[in-house]
Amino acid sequence: MPTMEVDGKQVAWEGRKMILQACNDAGVELPQYCYHEGLSIVASCRICLVEIESPDPKDPAKLVKVPKLVPSCQTPAVNGMKVHSKSPKAAANQKAVMEFLLINHPLDCPVCDQAGECYLQDYSFKYGRAESRFDEDKAKKPKKDIGKHVVLYSDRCIMCTRCVRFTREISGTGELGVFGRGHKEQIDVFQGKSLDNPLSANVIDICPVGALLDKDFLFTQRVWFLKSTPSISPFSSGGENIFIEHNQGRIYRIKPRFNKDINKWWISDDIRYGWDFVHNNRLQTISAADAPEGLTWRQGLDRLERSFKKAVAEKGHGSTLLMLSPFDTTEEMFLAATWARKMDPGCALGLNLSKIDGQDQVFTNPTTGAVTYTIRADKSPNRLGAENIRAHFGGNSLMFSYLSSKISAGDIQAALVCADPIGHNDADMSNYFQPLKNLTVLSSRPDGLVKQASLSLPVCTWAEKAGVFENCQGVIQPFVQAIQPLEGSRSTGSVFWELLGLSGQYDPAAVRRMMADAGKPQYGQVTPPARQEKVELMQFAEL
Amino acid sequence: MAFAGPVLLKRIPDDPAKRRLIRYSDYCATGGYEALKKSWTTPPEDIIKLVVESGLRGRGGAGFPCGTKWTFLPKDLHPRYLAVNFDESEPGTFKDRYLTDYDPHILLEGIAIAAYANRITTSYIFIRGEYHHEAKILEEALEEAYANGIFGKKLPGTDIVHNCYVHRGAGAYICGEETGLLEALEGKRGWPRIKPPFPAVAGAFAKPTIINNVETLACLPDIVLKGAAWFKGMGTPSSAGPKLYGISGHIHKPGVYEDELGIKMSTLIEKYAGGVKGKYRAAIPGGVSMGILGTDQWDAELDFDIGRKYNVLGLGTAGVIVMNDTTDLVLMLRNIVRFFAYESCGQCTPCREGTAWMHKMLNRIVAGFGRPRDFDMLMEVGLSMGSMPGTTICGLADGANWAVKTFLQKFPDDFKSRLKPEQVRGVTLTPAGATV
Amino acid sequence: MAWLVEDRLKPYQSKRVEPYLTPEIKKRVAEKYFPRYPTKQAALLPLFHIIMHEYGYITEQAIDEAAEFLEITRAQVQDAVTFYEEFRLTPSGKYVVNVCRSIACELCGHADIVEKIRQVFGIDPGETTEDHQITLFEVECLGACEQAPCALVNEDLHGCLKPDTFVRHLQQLPAEAAHKGNGQGH
Fold first, then answer.
1. What distance in Å separates the CA atoms of residue C62 and residue C181, rounded to the nearest whole number?
2. How far apart are CA B182 and CA B188, in angstroms?
3. For position C180, what pLDDT does the model report?
4. Fewest CB atoms less than 10 Å from the CB: which of A369, B31, B177, B410?
5. What is the 3-state secondary structure (H, E, C) of A445-486?
């Protein structure tokens, strides 16, 4: 593996890489604004300039110093090379670039959402100078409402053009452009053709400063109060990796988490803004039609057990039904099916209809034709997991329509439905289950089937629990709990954990071991991500 | 040194009253297109070799050897383009306009020779938008040339049909930069590209492209006819051949004059331009991006080594601007810096922000609010930008860098006399860093 | 948005029924310019020279139509158009007077020319006379330094200007200009 020396540290890489990329991969910090691994290289911010000593092609043992500063983002790394980013010349340039970027910057950090995660702040601290030497008037540029989710503060912009390249190379929609020339130029959209593609909000993440901000998050929270929990999209079968950013039990925003095989650096807007169901319209009480004052969890679980036992006693095996939700984790579904088959070995296993939005939406780079992102039509995060569980338990795994005919015919006497957290199929479900008297629903929301259920139990959403989702390509991805379950609700897993009489707290890892023992070894190998805070770019200990 | 009379301007009379547009027939009657016919019977490789041997260096500003540039084209990669750089926007430069005003066919013949030698599919003459008249002249001359089989035909010995078109710019100095020009040609904003890839490998429309200045191409017919030795007989060893010198400012006879490379500026001013109006103080050797020649550099030789010898950036376009002793050099530097601030394309941080900052500083100094520390600040900001220190992609900021640097170095008192310690309510503030 | 923000979401105003890119313009570009370049986008500069020539300035609707015609996004068109000084997005008078302000012209008295125009016509650089006859601009080098000070009046270069005679010339310009813009659509 080729190696080079960067500020005295050894950096190794594979294949053809630019100096900056090799350093990023090796965790050696070089300052950078316009560079983004997912976008084309423009080398225009000029803060990543370094001094290099390159091996002489004739005599590789000899190093030749390049007289000019070179952009590390655009200069290929060469085996044996020496890179200096802290030399007087390189440091002077970093200082100069920081000063240039700040002379017209409004320095309104106290009212800026980006403060705390701003590269201007971080690099100013690390590479800039403490005072301003700019005695002239600052240029003034307007704020602009440029899209459904995005607002642009032109005066904070440093013209790195990452956002413009994103719309041209990733979303392929090209809504953004640089208008004007020289120091008067601004990022903008054509009047009336705003930034409204399904990936639009990614420009907020890649903006290194506070120029592009999220309207949804605007002024709601200082970022240093946020805790960041690695998670998996709850709203797409693609299994996009995300961070849930939350504080005091409340989610404030969702950010993409890099996964080179799945979502790269991006997520779609429907994933980013699709977490409304966590905090809105939640079911918090255990209720039954004949107990308007409410029930305790113990009473509720007893009633559920009784309803299944009664059906089996009256109609025999096969008179019960369990509907699994592809929004639940695989562990939860395993426990649910285990319990149901324990109660009634002939229990039918059904699967809620998926939410399908048209067809998969594929984004390509118009120039190269390469696929940059796919928005999955199937919005359920764990359809494959659900199907695996159903196949594992076998038996009466029936088509939905057939199940409903059995319900109408009275063959099914009791059913337990794990409801989806979103109401995409409420009307259909309501029709199918209309004839059934003995209907228990595990739901996170108070509408839908809950309205006609004989017993409803409040369960929590994905952000409040841990487990694995299996995406549409069969990748099993674990996630951890971000926030505490809403008061009154429990995770679906813990409901069946208790019903099965297992000891202690519900433990998804233990369930995965059970699944591995039951002939599904792939679940035994899953390691959940550490519940770490977001990795900070700045390692202040280095200062 | 053997300059026996005009080469490029041989068809244009000295007397302004006698000058007129030279049409195709006039051009041919005076030996025009003979060189093209001769080259069509010569193997293309020999023409490239001839141009390499002649030592012809680019006349657009950078002085890169023309023949060498041609050899960078990858073999057997087609189509190939030739972009003719007629974006003559450097203040003080008007030689290409003058040549085309009267003798457009010398350029077209040069293009045809270069196209044949390099197997070019399409040549685009990128002419700056402000040159309305010259664009019309070229369109008409092209029609004549097409009608006479110069363009639109297969290049001899190939199946490549060579076409030549005029492409008008629209008012952006940066499009005179090779890759900014290519971007404008492709219908985009003229932001210079990062290199590699170099235009010879992936230029216009990502195809191999060579970019040559008008005057460079206009030298080709005579090189083909008279040979490399004849061409090298003019000028100096490193700066061969004849050169168009544009001269303007405080002189009696501004205009374009031709002589060999390496003549003294004093010769140009006194022999051709009728002498200085008033007393000589300073001059710009070749467009405002080259910096300034001092009062003691009156005899500077105008060739490609001028930069090394006289502390300027280089010969540039050899558009000399002369200033007499009544000139306010602070105003002149502000003019130059304003030009760069206005024309900066806005891509690289140091140039976009730095030129505008220096312009604001100079405005303040001109308005009488200059402070002692401004001198060092100007110098520091100026020196921090440009492709020579490596802090920008293209050379535009080098122009600002060299202008500021050489003005301040060669005429420090002009600036220092304008800087006064700041006063607040009548109390003079001590300069930063001084102890009280 | 509750506070002062420019709204880019609403459609642009002042849309007129008849297109700026008339069938004749499209035909001219398609026949003359498209064959010259491997991409349609490359015809952007020639197209907007024609639009400037026909209308004297570029409207949002013209950009909208050009994007459709050149098969690129609206932002890409505006991105390119706003880079070039000659492409103006605001209307100007019948005669656009571009006085060169670069170094040779400043040395040779460009300030006197601008001052005289200011006195006689009452306009500063960037302004148009009330009768929409003349718009004054100061521009960077016109490439005619030997004729300093110089100015471009629409498409015609005027050199070796004297304030009085130049202003007289401007006053005597006919009320109808030969063409609206200073671009030429050849």
1. 15
2. 9
3. 53
4. A369
5. CCCHHHHHCCEEEEECCHHHCCEEEECCCCCEEEECCCCCCC
Nearest CA in chain B to C186: B136
DSSP-derived letter for residue C31 is: I
- Nearest CB among C76, C140, C155 relative to B339 is that of C140
> What is the reported pTM?
0.94
Residue C155: CB atoms within 10 Å: 19
d(CA B361, nearest CA chain C) in Å? 18
Q: Higher pLDDT residue, B408 or C4? A: B408
Mean pLDDT for the stretch of residues A278-291: 91
Whole-angstrom distance, CA of residue A420 vs CA of residue A354? 9
Does residue A442 sit in helix, strand or coil?
strand
- Give me the residues paired with residue A288 across strands: A291, A455
- Segment A438-493, tens digit of pLDDT: 999 999 999 999 999 999 999 999 999 999 999 999 999 999 999 999 999 999 99
Q: How many contacts, defined by CB atoms under 8 Å, are there between A and B? A: 95
Longest dimension (CA), chain B: 83
Beta strand pairing call for A286-288 and A361-364: unpaired
Contact B344 A185 (CB under 8 A): no
User: Which of C42, C103, C141 shows the shortest C-beta gap to B187?
Assistant: C42
Q: What is the DSSP string of C112-155?
A: HHHHHHHHHH---TT-B-TTS-EEEEEES--S-GGG-S-EEETT
Nearest CA to B385 among B370, B372, B400? B400
Q: How far is A168 from A163, CA to CA, in rounded Å?
A: 9
Q: Is the pLDDT of residue A409 over 90?
A: no
From chain B, the residues in CB contact with C109 under 8 A are none
Contact present, C146 and B255 (Cβ < 8 Å):
yes
- Say if the Cβ atoms of A192 and C82 lie within 8 Å: no
Candidates A167, A190, A212, partner chain C, best to mutate (most C CBs within 10 A): A190
